[in-house]
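FORM 12-B: Structure-to-Sequence Request
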């Protein structure tokens, strides 16, 4: 069973915030309860901060190794300036580095078929510079996924998804990579000045 707090709960908000926010809340709760409770209850009061320590550890584990906001913005600028052949070669290099077998597709809906351990994913990346991705490219990618019998689908864009497109991607389990995911996925492959 995977534990996941409600997105708008205090735990959900802290899980998406920098990890040390949860640690500060843990110290505040634990310290306040330990200071204001009667002598016999101070240890129990100090332990009220423990759930926030757990959230801090979970947030730290999720955030470890992620690129900073400056690195994400640098990657976004670098990738937006690249021509398609250079961007495609960079993506292919990253997929291969991560242990995948990559096939370039000459298909309007998808650019790569990526396979690892017998599990295939179709990838649409050619519209990475689009400011907004609509529903039709995602429908076409999903159709390609079904046609090839691929387990997964990935749409790569530096822009935003329209509301219907975002809902469709969530419903069909189409993964979407934006600048942050690209900065993570292409780590070590961008030129030094752009890391």
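FORM 12-B RESPONSE
SEQUENCE OUT:
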């Amino acid at each position: 069973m995977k534990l996941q707090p409600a997105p708008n709960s205090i735990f959900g908000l802290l899980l998406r915030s920098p990890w040390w926010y949860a640690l500060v809340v843990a110290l505040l709760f634990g310290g306040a309860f330990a200071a204001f409770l009667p002598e016999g209850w101070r240890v129990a009061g100090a332990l009220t901060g423990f759930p926030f320590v757990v959230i801090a550890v979970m947030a730290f584990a999720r955030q470890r190794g992620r690129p900073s906001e400056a690195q994400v913005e640098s990657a976004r600028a670098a990738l937006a300036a690249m021509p398609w052949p250079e961007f495609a070669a960079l993506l292919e290099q990253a997929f291969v580095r991560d242990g995948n077998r990559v096939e370039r597709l000459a298909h309007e809906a998808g650019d790569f078929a990526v396979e690892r351990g017998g599990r295939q994913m179709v990838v649409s990346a050619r519209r990475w510079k689009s400011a907004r991705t609509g529903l039709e490219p995602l429908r076409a990618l999903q159709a390609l996924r079904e046609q090839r019998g691929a387990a997964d689908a990935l749409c790569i864009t530096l822009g935003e998804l329209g509301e219907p497109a975002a809902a469709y991607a969530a419903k069909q389990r189409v993964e979407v990579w934006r600048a942050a995911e690209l900065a993570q996925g292409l780590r070590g492959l961008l030129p030094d000045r752009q890391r």
